[in-house]
Amino acid sequence: MDLLLDVNIVLDICQPRHPFADSAHLALSKCHREGGRMWLYAGAVQTMLYLLANGLLDDARRAGTALSRAEALGRSRRLLQVFSADKQWLSALAGEGDVFADDDPENEQLVRALDRFKEGGIRLLTRDDRLLGSCTTAISCADYLVLAPRAQSLEFIDLATQQALIRPRLERQVHRVLHHGQYIMGPEVIELESRLAATVGVKHCVTTSSGTDALLIALMALGIKRDDEVITTPFSFFATVEVILLLGAIPVFVDIDPRTYNLDPNKLEAAITPRTRAIVPVSLYGQCADFDPINAIAARYKLPVIEDAAQSFGATYKGRPSCSLTMIACTSFYPAKPLGAYGDGGACFTDDDEIAARLSRLRDHGQSGRYRHTEVGINGRLDTLQAAVLLAKLDIFATEVLARQCAAARYDALIRSLLSNIAPPYLEPWCTSVYAQYTLNVENRAELQNMLQSKGIPTAIHYPTPLHSQSALGLSSAESRSFTHAETAAARVISVPLHPYLEEATQIAIIRAVAAAYAGKR
């Protein structure tokens, strides 16, 4: 549980005021011990500084010590700077300024600020009797100290910790957009495209409204049309095949490598026919597909390759970044991705000037200029607000990728130590992964999933039904070919929590729970 600290609690500790300081220290220690965050209200900075300086002057007068107001203010600034160093700042919003009709405007500001939080997720720590009597979320130090700790739920992906880390940057970026008001194709979109292209090492990045739309306009830019064949994997999220079907093209599936779950290059050439117009390998779970042999086969048949890099942005293949390996690459900024927005978003990458220009037109209704529609496109632009969020997250992305890789390495070591019947995810020696998912191949998956759920450990299945078996394709069992490795994977894979802020103790508990589920079944 988080705590919003009233000014009187801050002053009790910084001055300090006895006997209140002792209980305040104990309350803050309890919050930290239980994994809660402590918040300070940005709108109360001047009040904190003014009241603390006055308190220091009063103490000096009582002690007969000379202390000027300038010295008191300087000491107050230093004390508050130290105290706030490990706290979160809660911004003051416009709606929290119109409080002059209230008898106590400062208290009313705090009460309104609490409305932003999920019910039960935060308490206002105070010793103000009026707040304690009128605000249901207010709590005294004494009552908080005897409050039973809330059970901590384990998150599959922890976006809250990440947000706390970059909150000032996020708020600054978002407010910048609110003030300039360019919500469509604003300057943040242009800046983001430039930074993403530089990160990947390609000439062009064209952002889109989603990863799905990125794939769609990539196929459109290559002129894919009705009855063209597009080769892809049967083991991916439905968007991979959906965009092919939306254009009236025919998906042709190639089975996966059972170790990496990516399209098997050894089976690719046999799937090529005179009607093949493109190849779309998926870099699944954060690891790139084996692109050198794929690109070599594609070159022999003069076929373009599109990397579906929805899960692999930030990974590398033989020292080259994902999204720089093919004619066009597409990624997703869905919130759960390693680099995720606070809504949908995506991007296309290419070194080809002509393709980049066409991608830009296609995402904006096929416009070559305002109201000049030279071809039929879609409304597929990235919102400026999402670009602002992504710019803030991009600042820490490289650090988070390393943290993901460290967490995966800890999982690997734990699995080798504690599990004899399950292997860690296979990583090709020439690849690095961003571990969009940490996915195990297991027996009795449903039983394992139920047991982990009973222990409060969330899991996910990516993906339970291969694409060739999805009813939307309209294939009868007689028409649908069998893809053995994809079907086996769909029946056995299970993903466990992995994110940059996953603690080692949590990982140990997860793998021990997996081991307990299989104990005695060897």
Give me some keywords for this one.
522 residues, alpha/beta, Rossmann fold, Aspartate Aminotransferase, domain 2, Aspartate Aminotransferase, domain 1, 3 domains, five-stranded parallel sheet, four-stranded mixed sheet, globular
Describe this structure in words.
- The chain folds into 3 domains: 2-152, Rossmann fold, CATH 3.40.50.1010; 162-394, Type I PLP-dependent aspartate aminotransferase-like (Major domain) (Aspartate Aminotransferase, domain 2, 3-Layer(aba) Sandwich), CATH 3.40.640; 397-518, Aspartate Aminotransferase, domain 1 (Alpha-Beta Complex), CATH 3.90.1150.
- It contains 18 helices and 19 strands.
- The protein has helices at 7-14, 20-33, 45-63, 69-84, 105-114, 129-134, 141-145, 159-180, 187-200, 211-221, 239-246, 291-300, 353-362, 384-394, 397-418, 445-454, 484-492, 504-518; strands spanning 2-5, 38-41, 88-90, 122-125, 138-139, 204-208, 229-232, 250-253, 276-280, 306-308, 316-317, 320-321, 328-332, 346-350, 367-369, 372-373, 431-432, 438-441, 493-496.
- Strands 3-2-1-4-5 form a 5-stranded parallel sheet.
- Strand 7, helix 11 (239-246) and strand 8 form a beta-alpha-beta unit.
- The two termini are 41 Å apart.
